[in-house]
Design goal:
This protein has seven helices and three strands, in the order H-H-H-H-E-E-E-H-H-H. The protein is mostly helical. A three-stranded antiparallel beta sheet has the order 1-2-3. Helix 2 packs antiparallel against helix 3 and helix 5 runs antiparallel to helix 6. The chain is rod-shaped and about 190 Å long.
């Protein structure tokens, strides 16, 4: 039994020899030495048992071989248990130390890695912040330039609108006066006659007193011995209704009224007034007026700019 226990202990030591900490190896050597001392003691006891019985020990009482063997086995078992306990304790300490070292290593590596990543992130964010700040500054500059340009443009537009409104008011004032409106109509008639190649004093005359009273705006000498009179009229009220109309039906009605009023006012007065006056030489005069078919566009397109 002693040799079997010793062989079991040696095999356990051999299994743990390659994986234990150096401190564990020293503890195993101590256990081996302890077991060797126990075995040596057992050998000495065994040799003592083989001596003759005639030489009993002087100072110690005699011990039976069975008791001695039991004591040796108990001592060896106790030494083995103590060695195993010390070995287990040392192994637990080594394991805790290994865990601590591994934890410290992993923590240090993690901190180093996180620090490196934090530096990269900080550098990236710094670059992005600088780019965004630069772009915002450029946008603010562009907005400021746009505000200044818009202010200048709006100022120019406002001035142009004010000037146009003033000119429109002036034109409205002019057209609201019948005498001035007649002068404007004469200007349009002059433009039409000149564009047609008529020459004043040769093809027509203006504002000449006729026999029997009356003063037509234009007098045309017609071959062979006829005279054509033309009076200039422009119905502004009907034209204003046509321009201000928003509905197509209202616009069409205003157009009809304008053309009717235009034809009536431009043709009625000379023919009526002249037809009622006596003619000294009926063979050489003609109580007629210029009858023209006109449209709103043909009337308005001749307005001077």
């Amino acid at each position: 039994m002693r040799w079997a226990t010793f062989r079991w202990f040696l095999s356990r030591c051999n299994r743990n020899r390659g994986s234990e900490h150096p401190l564990g190896t020293v503890a195993a050597m101590e256990i081996v030495l302890t077991v060797a001392v126990v075995i040596l003691t057992a050998v000495v006891v065994f040799q003592a048992r083989r001596k003759p019985a005639s030489t009993p020990a002087v100072t110690t009482p005699p011990v039976s071989p069975d008791d001695l063997t039991t004591r040796v086995e108990l001592a060896a078992q106790k030494a083995l248990n103590d060695a195993v306990a010390r070995l287990s304790t040392q192994a637990e300490q080594d394991r805790q130390e290994a865990i601590r070292l591994a934890t410290e290593t992993v923590t240090k590596q993690s901190n180093d890695l996180l620090g490196a990543k934090a530096q990269v992130i900080d550098a990236t964010l710094k670059g992005v912040t600088q780019d965004v700040t630069k772009r915002l500054s450029e946008i603010n500059t562009e907005l400021q330039n746009l505000r200044e340009s818009s202010s200048k443009q709006y100022g120019s537009v406002e001035e142009a609108v004010s000037a146009l409104a003033k000119r429109t008011d002036n034109l409205k004032d002019i057209l609201s006066n019948s005498q001035k409106r007649g002068q404007w109509g004469e200007r349009l008639a002059e433009d039409i006659l000149r564009s047609a190649g008529f020459v004043e004093g040769k093809n027509y005359s203006k504002q000449q007193q006729i026999e029997g009273g009356g003063k037509p705006d234009y007098r045309f000498e017609m071959p062979p011995d006829r005279v054509l009179f033309m009076d200039v009229k422009f119905p502004l009220d009907q034209y204003s209704l046509y321009i201000a109309a928003e509905d197509e039906a209202v616009r069409a009605n205003a157009k009809v009224q304008f053309l009717s009023a235009y034809t009536a006012t431009s043709l009625r007065s000379p023919s009526v007034s002249m037809s009622t006056r006596p003619r000294t030489t009926p063979s050489t005069t003609c109580s007629c007026s210029c009858r023209m078919r006109a449209s709103v566009h043909s009337c308005t397109k001749l307005i001077p700019n």
